[in-house]
Write a structure and sequence with these properties.
The complex is a heterodimer of chains A (403) and B (378). Chain A has 403 residues and is an all-alpha fold. Among the domains of chain A are: 69-171, no CATH class; 199-375, MetI-like fold (Orthogonal Bundle). Chain A is built from 17 helices and four strands. Chain B is α+β, with helices and mostly antiparallel strands and 378 residues long. Chain B is 22% helix and 34% strand. In chain B, helix 2 crosses helix 3 (122-135) and helix 3 crosses helix 4. The chains are: A mainly alpha (403), B alpha+beta (378).
């Protein structure tokens, strides 16, 4: 093209190219191809993330508020309760609808689902439903009297309020259960009875433990990362191999090694007794408790702290410290004002990494392994009664699986 | 205009501000990076350490700043030995090659840093920072981060930071190395201007001879761990004392030969070149007959002699040369000729009236005076 070198000219609608096409449009056309190429390159990963990550998470999150049972298996009752104001008892129509639903549910053999769903919220609901359902088929109007005759619980307004509340398609009760809360019969959010509370304690313990582990890892990793970044290449590489060594050994081997070292008849206790620091009878319990968990997890997660710190420190030239020193700052001030602030990105990245990983690991231990770390409050022997598991299991199991 | 080779070093010690006394430095215990370095810097002087990379000049600067410890010898500041003094107590300003501006602080915070660590009051800091920024003409840029400034602006901030706490000695480690040519020249004048205005003593390290010649009061030419020559820029260029200095500073024609006669006393000697030609030269670094020597001759000191004899007397040495190549450089012409057995002999002539236009293959007479042709060590 002979006129390709003509410069962009300014028209009334902003800049245009030589042949009058708006410059922006022309630029878009020019870069479209490279954009398309870039999109194609990331497409496999995008699809993978979409299928394996975004969709499952979305599904889990939606299931944690999903509440189809009451509206599906008690359709007539749900419908007739929509007009009820929640004061006193509902009218005859509602009782009639319930009797019909119970009879239909018994026939279709799906009454159990709604009964157990409501049982999460209020114990005794399952037996109330099965007992009433058996008689529902033979009931004659007025259904109100008939149902109350079958079980006098049907004159309890709380039960009707519960059915009305759970007839919605979505519920917050799973999430409330996860933070030791529940709906009161009148629909307010209240704390669960103390003997049923466990999740908040475990949440706090998980966060606190993770914070301690993160802090310890940072304290240990900082000088190591600094050494790695400042040592001459030869010795630095050797040190790097040592840092990465834990990655090469299996988790199982590492854990058993820690047991061998830390247990009461273990290496460390033997040494302490050997040098006379502690008495034979006073061997310290260092494993199967918080101490052991903190030691082992700090060790396992240390590389995740060292590596981000190292990569940041490697980019800080020594001349910054030299400059600070020559400007009159002592070694401590120079470190605090000049070196440390520049390592903050590394500290942030490393801490987030270690914190998230240790939350994932400790919470898994809490919920499933039932490790002594999660030692349940002694005052609540009833906590783990099967009756109460269903309520919190769903959202939390999903929460944990998502890691 | 030939200057004396010996610069007049001050005799009274009171005016000597910073001093290296017999300093040696070794990193590995096997080789000396700096071998017996002696230097006296007068108060208010601008001294440059000039040398190729690896010559030990930066090591000397680092020892003065306190980041390296001398293996032997003493460093004195204002008459006090500072070998054991940590860097932050020396009160020496320093400008680094990569500027070393703290990236997490704004320009003003960078400048306030040395004042804050000295415990100055807020008002004092604010006014001093403002003054320093005005001095380097960056008054508007106090709130910017160093990363938002151009290379030249960063350089000026680094300079202001090294000066803001009013040190008596400022060290500069190749501060202009990362700038492009125009900016470098501009900064050279800027540094010179500030030096003259503040009267601060400056010790400057560079490998760029133009930079050294432009800015310095005195230059110490470094090579191989020792100072080859310490002199004013004029003396270094006009009267190099050895072959390295002659080669390193400016352009230089080299002819090798043997001293055949020392018949002219101080004025000249006669050197027989390897090709057999006899050249009269100024004896600088030779002592005896039969010694090998390298003759150093600046390209602009060679005269082109017209065919028809002019009024001017003939120079001491006249030879016939053959033009090999003419390079046009705008303000002057660089002509490569073959003469005295050398194919690389360069002659510089101004691009002006009165000078002949040369063509490759042409032969002509060239000549030079004995005093411009220095007989140095081989």
């Amino acid at each position: 093209m002979s006129d390709s070198s003509v410069p962009a000219t300014s028209g009334p609608e902003g800049l245009t190219t030589a042949d009058g096409v708006p410059l922006k449009q022309s630029l878009n056309r020019a870069v479209r191809r490279s954009r398309l190429k870039a999109l194609l390159l990331v497409a496999p990963l995008l699809i993978f993330i979409g299928l394996a990550f975004v969709m499952p998470i979305f599904d889990m999150l939606s299931r944690s508020v999903d509440n189809p049972e009451v509206s599906t298996y008690l359709p007539r009752t749900s419908e007739s309760l929509t007009h009820w104001d929640g004061e006193g008892l509902p009218d005859e129509a509602a009782y009639a609808a319930l009797a019909q639903d119970l009879a239909a549910g018994l026939k279709a053999r799906n009454l159990g689902r709604v009964a157990s769903r409501l049982n999460y919220e209020m114990s005794g609901m399952r037996s109330l439903f099965t007992k009433s359902a058996r008689k529902a088929g033979r009931m004659e109007p007025p259904f109100k009297e008939a149902l109350i005759k079958a079980d006098k619980d049907w004159q309890d307004p709380d039960i009707w309020r519960l059915i009305k509340r759970e007839s919605g398609l979505y519920t917050a009760s799973y999430y409330l259960a996860a933070i030791d809360r529940q709906f009161s019969p009148t629909g307010e959010i209240v704390e669960k009875p103390e003997y049923l509370q466990i999740h908040v304690v475990l949440f706090i313990r998980t966060f606190w433990m993770s914070a301690v582990i993160t802090g310890l890892a940072l304290l240990l990793a900082y000088p190591v990362a600094w050494l790695l970044a400042t040592l001459p290449a030869g010795r630095g590489n050797l040190l790097m191999i040592l840092v990465l060594l834990p990655f090469w050994t299996s988790l199982l081997v590492r854990t058993t090694t820690w047991i061998a070292i830390l247990q009461q008849q273990g290496v460390l206790n033997d040494m302490l007794v050997g040098v006379g620091l502690i008495a034979e009878e006073a061997r310290i319990q260092m494993i199967y408790n918080k101490t052991g968990t903190i030691i082992a997890m700090t060790h396992i997660l240390l590389p995740f702290m060292i590596l981000p710190l190292y990569s940041v420190m490697k980019t800080i030239p020594p001349s910054y410290m030299h400059a600070a020193r020559s400007l009159g700052a002592g070694p401590v001030t120079a470190f605090r004002r000049v070196y440390f602030p520049q390592t903050l990105p590394g500290i942030g990245a490393g801490s987030i990494l270690v914190f998230i990983l240790s939350i994932a690991i400790t919470s898994r231990r809490h919920w499933w392994v039932g490790s002594p770390v999660a030692s349940l409050p002694t005052s609540s022997p009833t906590t783990c009664r099967p009756r109460s598991i269903g309520g919190w299991q769903r959202p939390l199991a999903r929460f944990c699986w998502s890691w | 205009m030939v200057m004396t080779a010996e610069p007049d070093v001050p005799q009274e010690t009171s005016s000597c501000f910073a001093r290296f006394s017999d300093v040696q430095k070794s990193y590995d215990g096997e080789t000396l990076v700096v071998k017996g370095f002696n230097l006296e810097v007068r108060r208010g002087e601008f001294v440059t350490l000039l040398g190729p990379s690896g010559s030990g000049k930066t090591t000397c600067l680092m020892m003065m700043a306190g980041f390296e410890t001398p293996t032997h010898g003493e460093i004195l500041l204002d008459g006090i030995p500072i070998n054991k003094l940590p860097p932050h107590k020396r009160g020496i300003g320093m400008v680094f090659q990569n500027y070393a501006l703290f990236p997490h602080m704004s320009v003003a915070e960078n400048l306030a840093f040395p004042l804050e660590v000295r415990g100055m009051s807020k008002e004092e800091i604010t006014s001093k920072v403002a003054n320093a920024l005005d001095m380097v003409r960056l008054g508007e840029f106090g709130d910017r981060r160093p990363g938002q400034l151009s290379g030249g602006q960063q350089q000026r901030v680094a300079l202001a930071r090294a000066l803001v706490f009013e040190p008596e000695l400022v060290l500069m480690d190749e501060p202009l190395g990362a700038l492009d040519k125009n900016l470098r020249e501009e900064m050279q004048f800027e540094i010179k201007r500030i030096h003259q205005r503040l009267g601060v003593t400056m010790l400057y390290v560079t490998h760029d001879q133009t930079e050294a010649l432009t800015m310095s009061d005195r230059i110490a030419v470094f090579n191989d761990g020792i100072v080859q020559q310490l002199a004013t820029p004029e003396a270094l260029y006009e009267a190099p004392e050895n072959a390295f200095v002659a080669y390193f500073i400016g352009e230089n024609n080299r002819l090798n030969g043997v001293v055949s006669r020392l018949d002219g006393g101080e004025a000249y000697c006669t050197v027989t070149l390897d090709g057999g030609e006899e050249v009269k030269a100024l004896p600088v670094a030779i002592k005896a007959m039969g010694e090998r020597t390298q003759l150093s001759l600046r390209p602009e000191r060679v005269r082109l002699l017209a065919e028809e004899s002019s009024d001017a007397p003939l120079p001491d040495n006249v030879f016939t040369a053959e033009v090999k190549e003419v390079i046009y450089l705008g303000d002057h012409l660089r002509t490569r000729v073959a003469v005295c057995g050398s194919e690389e002999f360069i002659i510089k002539t101004p691009n002006a009236d009165g000078y002949p236009v040369l063509k490759p293959g042409q032969s002509l007479k060239v000549g030079w005076d004995a005093q411009d042709c220095r007989a140095l060590d081989a």
